[in-house]
Amino acid sequence: MSAKLSKLRQRLEERLAGRIQILALALNELSLEIAATDYESVMRDLIDAPELGFEQLIDLCGVDYSIYQDEGREQRFAVVAHLLSLAHNWRLRVRTFAEDDDFPRLPSVTSLWTSANWYEREAFDLFGIVFEGHEDLRRILTDYGFVGHPLRKDFPLEGHVEMRYDEKERRVIYQPVTITPRENAPRIRREANYGAKHD
Length: 199
Fold this sequence. Notes:
Blueprint: H1 3-15, E1 22-26, E2 29-34, H2 39-48, E3 56-64, E4 77-85, E5 90-97, E6 105-107, H3 116-127, E7 130-132, E8 161-166, E9 171-176
Parallel strand pairs: 2-5, 6-7
Antiparallel strand pairs: 1-2, 3-4, 4-5, 8-9
C-alpha cells in the first residue's frame, strides 16, 4: 500500500471509528463498507472533514448481489459510491447494503453532492432502491409505464410487456412480450490449417 493510501486509511479509521465494517485495499483504491444506519453520517463526515475532503461524488450506482448470497451475504441490494478529494488527490469507494430486500432504501446524499441527483434516480429506476429525501425520485431511463426494475437479477430477459404503435388504433399499445428466446452464438469459419506454422 502506498504512503498516500496508508495516510488515508489512518484518517478514515480515526474519523469513522466504530462505524467501519470493512476497510480494504481493492484495485489500488480503498474500499469502505458501512452499515445503512451510518450511511448518512459517514457520507457527511467524508465531505465535511477537512482531513478527508471528498468534495466530489464521481459515481453512485446500485448493485444486486442476489447471485452472491451463497457467499454469506445477507442483504441483496447495495449502493456503491466513488468519491474524489481534489485537495488531497485520493479516491474512496464506499459500499452500503440496504437493510430490507423487499423495499431497499437509503438516505439521499443529494444535499451533500448535487451530482447524486441523476445517479440516485438511475439506481431507483433500474434496481428499485428508494433514496429517502430525494426531491425528484422518478424514473430516468425507462418509460413512465414501465413495470419492474430491469437490472435486478430476477427481471426476465425479455421483460414483461412490449410497446408498439398500432396503425388501426392510431396509438401506442402495450402487449405481452412475443420474443422467442434463442441462442446467439456466432459462427466461426476458419481455414483447415488455421494456426499451423508455415515454413
